[in-house]
C-alpha cells in the first residue's frame, strides 16, 4: 500500500507492510521505478530503501554510511518512542550498531568461533543433530495423519540447537529464546509488547551470562565474559548482552528461513530437485540460489548516511534510516538477467547475491548457515525423496513483518 502524498524525491513513498506478506510483487513494482525508494516505516517515520543490486552493493560499502544510532536523526530528535517495533535493530549495543574501531573490536571477539576451520569441525555434530530431527519429523507426521510442520520440527531446532550449544545456553531456554526472537524480528509488535519483549530477552540473557560467570565452561559466552573481564574495557555488560541478542537471533532466524524457503522452492520446482538428486548440481547450489531468489531476510534495518548522499540518482538525506532491500536485490533483472524471477540452481554465472550482507558487516555466521542448510536439505530429501507440501503455496501464512521473509509454518508430507 502506498501513501497518497509524494515527496521531494519525486516518488510516492511506499508504506512498509508491518503485517508481512510476500515481498516480491511489491519489490518488482518499486524496482521498475528505480533502485532507491522512499518508504514510510512504523510510526510514520520517513525512511528509504535501497533495492537495486548494484546500488545496494555500493551503499553497503560507502564510507559515508554508518550504523551507529547517534546518526539516526529521528532518534536523536526524540521522535522514536520506546515501544517502536524496530528500536532493537537501531539501538541494541553490539557489532550491528557499531562503526570503525568499535565494530572491529566487537567482531574480533566472536569471529574465532566462525572461521572455516571451526565451522568444519562442527559438521559431525550438525549431521548427528539433523539425523535425530529427521526421526522426530517422521514421528510428528505419524502422529498428525501423515502431515508435520517442517519449520517447527526440523528447520527451527537445527540452527537454534547448534547456536545455543556454541554459546553454552541450556536447551531448557531454547523455546523461550525463539519466541522472544520472533517478536523482535516482527514489525507489527504492539509498543507495550515490544518493551516487555526486549526487557525479558535482556533479563534472560543476563541471567544466563551471570550463571556462566559463576561457573565458566568451554563455550562462547564464557569466552566473551573472559574477554570482558580482561582489563575491564574490551566488552561492556550492555555490549555482552547485545552481542548475545544478535547471535541468538541471527544465529537461527536466518537459517530457519533459508531451509524453509529452499524446501518450498524445491517442492515447487521438482525439475530442479531432480537435478541435484541426480548429481547434476550440488546442494550448495540450492542454498545459493535460494539465498538469491527468496532471501531469508527481506528488508534489513538500518544504515544512515552521515551526509546527504546521492545513490543511483536519488538523494538520501543525512540521518535517514535506510533499509537494505535484500529480497529485491536478489531478483533485480539488471544484475541477474531477464529471468531473475526464475528459480534455477544451474544459473551461470553462479548466483551472485547480497543476502548475507556485503562489506565490513558481512554476516559472520555465513559459513555456518551455509553448512547447516546444505546438510539439512540433503539429509531431508535423501530420507524423504517424495516429500511435498501439504498445502498449496498460496495458503501458507507469511511471516509477520517486513524483515524476515518466509512462512510461519510449513506443513509437509514426509513420505519415505
What report would you give on this structure?
The chain is of the alpha+beta class and 416 residues long. The chain has a single domain, classed as Cytochrome P450 (Cytochrome p450, Orthogonal Bundle). It has helices at residues 24-33, 53-60, 73-76, 87-91, 100-111, 116-121, 123-143, 150-155, 157-167, 174-185, 191-214, 220-229, 237-268, 270-277, 283-293, 326-330, 333-336, 366-383; strands spanning 14-15, 36-41, 45-50, 65-66, 148-149, 299-305, 309-311, 314-316, 322-325, 388-389, 411-413. It has a 6-stranded mixed beta sheet. A 3-stranded antiparallel beta sheet has the order 5-11-10. Strands 7-8 form a two-stranded antiparallel ribbon. Belongs to the cytochrome P450 family. This is Cytochrome P450.
The proportion of strand residues reads 5-15%
The shape is globular
Question: What would CATH call the class?
Answer: Mainly Alpha
Across the major sheet, the strand order is 1-2-3-9-6-4
Main sheet makeup: 6 strands, mixed
Protein name: Cytochrome P450
Pfam family, one: p450
Family: Belongs to the cytochrome P450 family.
Summarize the structure.
The chain is α+β, with helices and mostly antiparallel strands. The protein has helices at 24-33, 53-60, 73-76, 87-91, 100-111, 116-121, 123-143, 150-155, 157-167, 174-185, 191-214, 220-229, 237-268, 270-277, 283-293, 326-330, 333-336, 366-383, and strands spanning 14-15, 36-41, 45-50, 65-66, 148-149, 299-305, 309-311, 314-316, 322-325, 388-389, 411-413. The strands form three sheets. A six-stranded mixed beta sheet has the order 1-2-3-9-6-4.
Amino acid at each position: 500500500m502506498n501513501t497518497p502524498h509524494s515527496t521531494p524525491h519525486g516518488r510516492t513513498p511506499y508504506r512498509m507492510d508491518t503485517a508481512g506478506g510476500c515481498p516480491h510483487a511489491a519489490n518488482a513494482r518499486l524496482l521498475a521505478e528505480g533502485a532507491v525508494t522512499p518508504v514510510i516505516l512504523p510510526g510514520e517515520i520517513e525512511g528509504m530503501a535501497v533495492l537495486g543490486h548494484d546500488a545496494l552493493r555500493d551503499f553497503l560499502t560507502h564510507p559515508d554510511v554508518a550504523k551507529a544510532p547517534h546518526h539516526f536523526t529521528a532518534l536523536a530528535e526524540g521522535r522514536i518512542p520506546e515501544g517502536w517495533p524496530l528500536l532493537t535493530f537501531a539501538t541494541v549495543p553490539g557489532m550491528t550498531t557499531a562503526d570503525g574501531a568499535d565494530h572491529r573490536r566487537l567482531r574480533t571477539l566472536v569471529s574465532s568461533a566462525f572461521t572455516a576451520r571451526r565451522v568444519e569441525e562442527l559438521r559431525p555434530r550438525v549431521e548427528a543433530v539433523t539425523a535425530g530431527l529427521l526421526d522426530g519429523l517422521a514421528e510428528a507426521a505419524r502422529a498428525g495423519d501423515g502431515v508435520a510442520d517442517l519449520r517447527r520440527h526440523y528447520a527451527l531446532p537445527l540452527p537454534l540447537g547448534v547456536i545455543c550449544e556454541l554459546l553454552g545456553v541450556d536447551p531448557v531456554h531454547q523455546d523461550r529464546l525463539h519466541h522472544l526472537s520472533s517478536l523482535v524480528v516482527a514489525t507489527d509488535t504492539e509498543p507495550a509488547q515490544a518493551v516487555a519483549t526486549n526487557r525479558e530477552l535482556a533479563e534472560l540473557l543476563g541471567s544466563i551470562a551471570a550463571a556462566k560467570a559463576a561457573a565458566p565452561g568451554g563455550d562462547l559466552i564464557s569466552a566473551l565474559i573472559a574477554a570482558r573481564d580482561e582489563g575491564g574495557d574490551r566488552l561492556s555488560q550492555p555490549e555482552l548482552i547485545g552481542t548475545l541478542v544478535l547471535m541468538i537471533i541471527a544465529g537461527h532466524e536466518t537459517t530457519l528461513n533459508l531451509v524453509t524457503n529452499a524446501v518450498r522452492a524445491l517442492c515447487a520446482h521438482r525439475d530442479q530437485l531432480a537435478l541435484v538428486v541426480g548429481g547434476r548440481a550440488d546442494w550448495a547450489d540450492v542454498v545459493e540460489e535460494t539465498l538469491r531468489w527468496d532471501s531469508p531476510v527481506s528488508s534489513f534495518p538500518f544504515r544512515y548516511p552521515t551526509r546527504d548522499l546521492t545513490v543511483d540518482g536519488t538523494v538520501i538525506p543525512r540521518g535517514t534510516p535506510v533499509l537494505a532491500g535484500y529480497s529485491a536485490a536478489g531478483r533485480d533483472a539488471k544484475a541477474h538477467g531477464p529471468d531473475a524471477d526464475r528459480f534455477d540452481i544451474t544459473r551461470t554465472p553462479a548466483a551472485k547475491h547480497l543476502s548475507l550482507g556485503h562489506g565490513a558487516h558481512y554476516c559472520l555466521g555465513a559459513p555456518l548457515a551455509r553448512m547447516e542448510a546444505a546438510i539439512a536439505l540433503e539429509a531431508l530429501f535423501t530420507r524423504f525423496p517424495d516429500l511435498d507440501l501439504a498445502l498449496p503455496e498460496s495458503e501458507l501464512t507469511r511471516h509477520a513483518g517486513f524483515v524476515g521473509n518466509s512462512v510461519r509454518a510449513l506443513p509437509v508430507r514426509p513420505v519415505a
